[in-house]
Records
---
Amino acid sequence: MNKPTKRERSRIKIMHAAKGLFDEYGVDNVTFQMIAERADMCRTTVFNHFKSMNDLLVALTMQEMEDIVEYCESRGLKGKELLYGLIEKIVEDTACYPAFASTLIDSALINNEGESPLKTVENIMIRGLEDEGFTDIEHKLILLEGIYFGMSNHYHLNSKEFNVEDMIRESRILLDRILVKY
């Protein structure tokens, strides 16, 4: 694996700073100046990488999806293990940045241009279900997506702490209930 260039390192630093700020203050309350200060660079550098806040959000969304795909592929996960791994990775990312994750999901649901990042997740779920030989894929898919969305909504609505271990444990219990062949 090649060492990232200075430009790539700067881009990663900007994205990391933005992600944290978005989670702290909400996307609408973050400026490029705030991102530059958090990333310890000048605002011009941020603009050299991202022309608008929307470009930055798109880049963050794509990076999240690439990370999820890489996580599943690098482990060679198939069937149920692919589904467990996928949900666990999404839950882990959400627990680290709950407000930001909600913003990305809202944006992906509303802005359905091109290849939706949520469709990428859905395609991975379909592959896992097919590996397991399920024939009622659409129903299982809806239930699997419901685990994540339902749990995230429940935690947000009840001001529960987004604890990774607890959320993964709960998601595994729910997955076990769904991934039963009748």
---
Amino acid sequence: MTFPRLFILIATLMVLSAMPSIAQAQSAYNQYMETLSELNRIDPMQRSSYERADKILRRRVLDNKNKVIGEVNDIILSSNGSIESLYVDFNRLRLGPAVYLNYRQMNISSVSNGYALAFDDNQMENIYPDLLANIATAAGEDEDDTSVKNVVGATVKSEDGRKIGEVKNVLFSANGGRAEVLYLAMAFGVLRGQKVGLPYGSLEYRPTAGGKAEIIATKEQADAIIDFVKSE
């Protein structure tokens, strides 16, 4: 086989081998564009089906007799938006510093007037010392768990290093059961300042020591976000 023919064969094989990954990338881009279009059909901040993080972080904590015993100071979220723990100040019981309450283990439920515990005020007083003693390890079990306060104000970047925008708010489902939307102010070129909602669970969250989380979008997601906002 002559050198030109060998070169053409190698080039053809390289193109053919790249085709599946190109098709996958295009599919991921198209799917994310569709998701963004549906999510932002109405400005997410204007939807009554969502609650803003600033309101969620002032919600009351109720005992099993519907008595207000504290207030939410922060919420620890998993990467898919589910609540892992509440950081609660039991100011009505005057117990001391805020502590983390494991959302599932303590059978906490989100209700219209706050977060309801499965314990009464006396039971909470009894278990409070144990909660305080374990505070260092109670803020989330997975390395990508992060707090709402560290998500709001965080920068969203693409995996190839482009700065996409800054998180202005986290929108929760009705009654605050889970995080659904990152509400973003764009920081990319001429799109700076324009707003867009992103599905909370679609991105990667990287907690940092004592600071804002790093939030990473894939290249295809970043391209879709930029193109979608340009088209609006």
---
Amino acid sequence: MEILRDIFYTNKRVAKKAAISLGKNWPIIFTGLFYFIATFVVSMISRGFWILGGLISIIATSALISSYLYLLNGILRRGKFDFEDFKDGFTVYLRKLWTILFMGYLAMLILSLVSPILISTIGLAAVNMIIITLSFILFNPIPEATYQKYYDPWETITYTVEFVRENWIEWFVPNIALLAIFYFMPGPSLNILSFISNVFNYFISFNSFNISIIGFVIYLLSQIWFSYFMIYRAYLFEELTTSNRRKRLFMREF
């Protein structure tokens, strides 16, 4: 019963803070289109560099993710972000991010050596589902750990796993509830598995929507919800990492 009360009151407080912050920082809604276009351009350019293309893509993508995470950090710490944050953010977490992504790339290479054995044993669909589930459970809060904690890349990964171990109920109950709304949206519901399997999400892909006025409106609504979702996660992660259940319930009495 205590854990239910904690989840209810903590998320009631976080939901209000996230809504107010999104209202004050509404321009973040439109950054998604820029990040989508920039990611598409990076993908096209990196293909021309053969074996170096993967490295170029990792570094460029890390810069884009860094920029977005720095905007979230500005909202969390100062209640706002500006153009300078958008511009300067490309390098703030660059080294940490590209190292984490490179570790993930190496992990996938190692997994590719083992996967044929697993596929022949349990099937391709089962292997894919295991990978998606483990990624979602173990590494889901990595974005927040990246910009809220001053750890090196490996410590960020291990801290994330430890955070999930200690706060898995408090973290995943609201996250799954918010993600469920994406499932019922016309566009994002088409690639929800891809969305939850990615460690870093920093925009809603425009590929899921029809190129029309209605399609753009639906995309805009999806981007609004995505922005709220990421701001919500920022406040929730801060709340869970700076307090414990007993302290949160105690402070609620004052």
